[in-house]
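STRUCTURE REQUEST FORM
Protein name: Porin
Source organism: Methylobacterium marchantiae
Requested output: structure tokens
Priority: standard
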Amino acid sequence: MGGTAGTGAKSEARRRGSWIAGMVAVGLLGAASQARAEAPIKSPQDAACRNEARAKVFVTPDPNGIGLYALGRQIYMTCMARPQRQAKHRRR
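Status: completed
Returned output:
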């Protein structure tokens, strides 16, 4: 029984260490992705399409192997070509 208490502490430390390493990796990737400058947002449609591309880029299949950046751009351009719905104005 004494061996399981020590194993739990080691397991917890290992889990915490891998979590920290994961967060460092995410931070480095985030910093690297910020190095690429994006053009300023020009319209509400532009902002909506950027958000849609960010949301879909990791779940959209990439059978041609074009890469995440090209896939995101493809999603964005498809969204921008789509006619946008007009905002509903509330009557008072």
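Reviewer notes: The chain has three helices and no strands. The two ends are 71 Å apart (CA to CA).
Form closed.
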